[in-house]
Structure formats: C-alpha cells, structure tokens
Amino acid sequence: MDKRIEKLIDTIRKERIRQGYSLRQLAKECDTSHSCIFDLEHSYNSKIDLIKLLKVCEVLEIDFYDLLVKSGLIFSDKVFHCYEIDVYLDDELFYKFDVSETTEDRAIKLLNEYLEINNLIYEDCELEFEIREKIPRSLKK
Q1: Cβ neighbours of residue 95 under 8 Å, at least 6 residues apart?
Q2: Is the pTM of this model over 0.85?
Q3: Coil/strand/helix, residue 134
C-alpha cells in the first residue's frame, strides 16, 4: 500500500484513540458500521469511501486538507513539474514514464519506488534515466 495512504490512515486511528473513541462509538457518530471504521483503519478495502472519510474527519475535528498535506497526498504552495523519464536497462530503453513532482530528484525517487513496488525491476539491477522537463504547473491558489 502507498505509504501516504498508510500515514493518512495511521493519523486517523491515532486521533480516534487519543480522543477516546472506540470503533463502535466513532461508527455511531459517523452513522456507519464499526466494521467500516475497522476496514478504513486496517486498509482491508483498497478503495476508501471519501464521504465516510470526510465524516470521520468531521467527527474527529481533523482538517481534511491538512490531513492530505501532512500525509503527502497533496502539496501546499509547491510548484510541480511534469517530467518525461526514459528508463534504460543495459543501454536499452526499458520503460517511458511521465511523472509530476517538485524536482527531478524527487521524480526519479518516486519512479524508483514505483518500479520496486510493482516488481518491474529486480534487486541490484542498474538503471539509467534520461529526464526531460515538460510544462511546469503550480498548485498554488
């Protein structure tokens, strides 16, 4: 699972416990089942119900935007760039990707994590990257 989602879920669980809510108590306040809250906190459902997540944040008085920023799911006041990245293995083109990130280094790091998580590369293989910036965009309001 994406570490950013894990951080979001962990933040919600810790806040529920800090405020003294049991799963059943929070579920009642959110007008849902305790199993729904349990699934949310333990990532059994790969799809998070946004409406229920917003309700949990409301009950726990968690600012949803701040939660997304602190979890790394969105970035506040940062400029993102779109990079085209060619990945070479043994001097041959292996993959082509478009990655949006704040810097080239972060784009390469994110791509490496993606390749490893999805078992697209094997351990100790040496990759080379060719990176080109496309059009920068800002997420500032």
Answers
A1: 86, 87, 115, 120
A2: no
A3: coil
> In 10 A of CB 99, how many CB atoms?
20
pLDDT tens-digit map of 29-60: 999 999 889 888 887 556 778 888 899 999 99
CA distance 70 to 24: 26
Helical residues (DSSP H) of 19-72, grouped into ranges: 23-30, 34-42, 50-60, 64-71
CB burial string 21-51: b at 16+ within 10 A, e below: bebeebbeebebeeebbeebbeeeeeeeeee
Q: Which residue type sits at 10? A: D
| Residue 93, amino acid | L
